Amino acid sequence: MDLFNLLLIVHLGAFALGVTTTIAAPIVMARAGRAPADARGLFMEIGSRLRLNARIAVATLIVTGIAMMYVRYGGFAGQSPWFHVKMTFVVVIVLVLLAGIFLKPGKIPQPVLTWATRIAMVGAVISAVMAFN
Ligand code: HEM
Q: Which of 57, 76, 98, 107 could form a disulfide with 18 if both were Cys (CB 3.0 to 4.6 A apart)?
């Protein structure tokens, strides 16, 4: 197995982790508010862990993505418009992630952040397939 294939396996593994956690984390967090008082802490703990995993997944996607660009394409030059579409969705995902870390909770409504990430994830997959397949 060559280095590119190894990177792609990690990239797609991180993608699976990213998609599942970005769907699950907001669901668990939203339920935490309505959970009985003695269960609320546990809900928050699970939600925070899922959110941490989502952040690790996005960081891994970016690192392996950049590495693949250099290993297979020698850099970023000459990519199709679909690649730029994909990068735009990646920027949206990163901005939402940073907003979650640096902005006070509630500054941007949670459903806006949740749906921006979900739509951008779907968009990134579609544009990745269009760009590379
Ligand atoms: C949230 C972020 C990302 C998602 C959801 C994502 C998703 C995907 C998916 C589904 C594929 C498989 C496409 C296919 O083989 O047809 C793929 C491949 C790839 N992605 Fe990403 N990706 C992300 C971030 C990035 C970033 C930041 C870069 C580069 C800067 C990148 C570069 C690549 C490359 C080079 C490939 C493989 C190209 C090839 O098969 O020749 N990705 N990505």
A: 57
Tell me how many domains the chain contains. 1
Q: What is the pTM of this model?
A: 0.91
Tell me, using a 6 A CB cutoff, whether residue 54 lines ligand 1.
Answer: no
120 lines ligand 1 (CB under 6 A): no
pLDDT tens profile 43-91? 999 999 999 999 999 999 999 999 999 999 999 999 999 999 999 999 9
Distance CA 94, CA 113 (A): 11
What does the alpha-carbon distance between residue 65 and residue 67 come to, in Å, rounded to a whole number? 5
Q: Which atom of ligand 1 is nearest to the CA of 57?
A: 1
Tell me the per-residue pLDDT of 14-23, one tens digit each, with 9 for 90 and over: 999 999 999 8
